């Protein structure tokens, strides 16, 4: 007999091994439909993971941070498949979760543009709508294990990626491709959310744009963004690997306030605040930025 302890402390018994998905389905059809992964004794696993012995298990859905990250990771995987279908000679590079979305790098025979980006997004939506399964395969070489890369099949396309991933593409419906940058190696950026309503809200003009110097500040910049959001400020982070002057110039045309983050700000745990007109308010703690913006009364959602 296998004993499964759920996150609320309740105990379920099974007379044979069950997958995380089967466990979710035995609790409720709604939970099985929402499941994107499982957490088994504290470790994130795919929905097809088999529970062979006594375990403490919780079902992960997109309504929690880990579940949303899995959605975004799977969107990056789906992006790579869409690109290979449209551009068979494209060379896949790295892809990952980034801020409110994901990115993937490619080498193309010719640089792509925004028109091409629209076609890639359309192919991704087709992949999502046709509900392809995403299944984990056993790594075939020790190198994959060392790099934490696992072969995954999306339909009949194999790609090595860090898991876990969603069980099928049907849950990947609230996403959009935002930018493409680079020349020899191009990076495609996208955003992904748990619902269309959240994606639409994200698209609303922000009051504050957080801009990072480079990839090294991405995690800190995103944490600043989330702190501002919790305080009621409509904030968004531009984590693209672009020159900081380009990002500031672009956002100064539309966004009232910019928060600039470089290595100095990251190491010191503070930010630099400036207005769209170029007025520099200097460096301050994130909490001080929240308080100052609330005091203006103009930036709160």
Counting DSSP E segments of at least 2 residues, the number of strands comes to 19
Measured as a percent range, the helix fraction is 25-40%
Uncertain segments are none
Spatial strand arrangement across the major sheet: 2-1-7-4-5
The major β-sheet equals: 5 strands, mixed
Note the overall shape.
globular
Tally of individual helices: 10
Q: Compute the CA-based radius of gyration.
A: 21 Å
Structural class, from secondary structure content? alpha+beta
Element-by-element helix/strand order: EEEHHEEEEHEEHEHEEEEHEHEHEHEEH
Q: Give the termini distance in whole angstroms.
A: 53 Å
**What portion of the residues fall into strands of 2 or more residues?**
25-35%
What would the average pLDDT be, to the nearest integer? 92
Question: What does this entry show, briefly?
Answer:
This protein has 301 residues and is of the alpha+beta class. The protein contains ten helices and 19 strands.
């Amino acid at each position: 007999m296998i004993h499964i302890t759920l996150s609320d402390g309740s105990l379920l018994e099974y007379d044979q091994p069950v997958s995380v998905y089967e466990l979710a389905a035995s609790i409720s059809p709604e939970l099985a439909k929402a499941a994107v992964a499982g957490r088994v004794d504290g470790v994130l696993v795919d929905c097809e993971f088999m529970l062979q012995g006594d375990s403490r298990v919780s079902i992960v859905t997109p309504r929690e941070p880990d579940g949303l990250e899995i959605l975004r990771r799977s969107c990056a995987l789906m992006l790579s498949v869409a690109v290979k279908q449209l551009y068979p000679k494209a060379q896949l590079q790295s892809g990952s979760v980034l801020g409110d979305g994901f990115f993937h790098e490619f080498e193309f025979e010719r640089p792509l543009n925004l028109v091409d980006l629209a076609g890639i997004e359309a192919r991704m939506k087709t992949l999502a709508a046709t509900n392809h399964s995403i299944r984990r395969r056993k790594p075939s070489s020790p190198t994959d294990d060392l790099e934490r890369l696992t072969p995954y099949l999306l339909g009949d396309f194999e790609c090595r990626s860090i898991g876990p991933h969603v069980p099928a593409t049907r849950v990947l419906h609230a996403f959009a491709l935002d930018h493409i940058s680079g020349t020899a190696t191009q990076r495609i950026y996208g955003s992904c959310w748990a619902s269309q309503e959240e994606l639409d809200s994200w698209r609303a003009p922000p009051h504050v744009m957080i801009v990072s110097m480079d990839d090294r500040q991405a995690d800190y910049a995103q944490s600043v963004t989330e702190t501002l959001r919790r305080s009621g400020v409509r904030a968004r982070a531009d984590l693209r690997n672009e020159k900081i002057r380009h990002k500031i110039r672009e956002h100064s045309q539309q966004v009232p306030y910019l928060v600039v983050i470089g290595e100095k700000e990251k190491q010191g745990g503070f930010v630099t605040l400036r207005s769209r007109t170029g007025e520099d308010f200097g460096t301050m703690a994130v909490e001080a930025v929240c308080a100052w913006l609330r005091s203006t009364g103009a930036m709160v959602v």
